[in-house]
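Exercise (ungraded).
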Amino acid sequence: MRGIDKERLLELLYLPFRASGERPSLVRIDRAHVSGVSYLNLGEAGLHLLHDISETGMKVKARTTLNPCFVELSEEGSRFCDALTFEKQNEIAQCFNKMGVIPTFSCTPYLQGNVPKRGEHLAWAESSAVLYSNSVIGAWTNKESGIGALAAALIGATSRTGVHLPEGREPQLRIEYAGDVDDEVKAGALGYAVGEASGDRIPFVRSEGLLVRSNTIEFLAALGTSGGAPMAVIESVSPLARRYPRKRPTRTALSEHDIAEVLERFTLGNNPEAVLIGCPHLIRPSVRELSELRNRRSHLPVYVFTSRLTKARLAKSNILDKLLEDGVHIVADACIMWCGLKTLGYRTVVTNSVKGAHYLRNQMHIEAGLKPLKELTRELE
Amino acid sequence: MKTHRVKTIVAGGAKGKILKSDLPLSFLGGVDPETGRVTEEGHVLRGEIIAGTIFALPHSKGSTVGSYVLYSLVAHGVAPLAILMKKMDMVTATGCVLGEIPLAIVTDKTWSSLRNGGSAELSATSPTLRLSE
């Protein structure tokens, strides 16, 4: 295969124009966020590619942050992972470091580390972050591939196409859903159903439950899992949502039955061995949330996935040891697709994230069930 | 054989049997990068091997890391010969550029004439696709 150089990276940015036949045009980006950081996803081939890019000596030209990886990159983290994988993950981190990428290792840059402003142009990968930035903040980013976002960061610009154009941000179908969205799991299931119904079209959605931020986050993460669109227009949440006409040519009705059908796919046949929380990363776990997890009397260990910054803040408040005594582990840098799950031999887990459950099942082959946080804590009391 | 015009995204010739899905697929978590087998639970192509086929899918979905999966498929020698899509998406296109997998966009009409198991030949020199009757 051909080697990698600046010309090759530019070629990636010009790709959409080959499809549209339009004259290529780039837009300068304010921020970038790169996915394709986990050794689980990159594999040896991906690592070599990143290594080749880092060897070109190119540096990122906009504030660029990193998605989570497969391990916690600390001494504590190395205990949950085999030595070779840990070493490979460190090599990947070094490649990004060489390019000047900020090692945030979090999938929620919109909450911490790389918070965009409305109207900014971004080159973001990580589907859930793309959806949040467009749909809630009103920043503009296509759903870049991990490598495409990196190319854009190194060039300082991306293709002026898709949702970088006002006409590309119009919803293409209206989802009619009258049912309740009373917790984050239902929000995720709705997002998953909407993604399946809308494919790569931008959906217009309204639901009171989506006004709650934790629900919005899970809704969009699941929508990005089953669908291809880079944004949704959510009434009372998305900037300019009111400006879009109420009558859309295509309407699709979803019912509570569709939500139940999604949830059914995640039914557990066995008892869960662990509770996983933080897909996307739980960035501001409230003291109440964490104490509720602590106060339970079950033997199920709980793993909370978050950023290194959040873990460091929790460490400062001396809460980590107390949590650990009660079986609550705070894992930084990694996402729910964490090396430790294999090392510890978990075969059945429960989570409050539809996106997390989907990938745990399909990529890690771990049986993953769903329960909202409030039920998890109540049931475990 | 009937000739159809396509839009070339990544140039290259390929000749083989069509493997078609009318449902989108996420390459990450949907295809095993070492064997080319479709692994997504509940997917119509689950268990099928995309290696060595002319792989037709409407568009991809899900993870933005799918490009690396395509790149890994090439590295393991289990990539499709070419990919045909109804609509280009960046995740698939980026992976095809890096892995040098021929990629073409077909019209809705051509899409409906793609038959699973049928023969297809993507031209290396012109934006055309020949399909067996």
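Further reading is listed at the end of the chapter. For now, observe: Chain A has a mean pLDDT of 92. Chain A touches chain B through 46 residues (CB under 8 Å).
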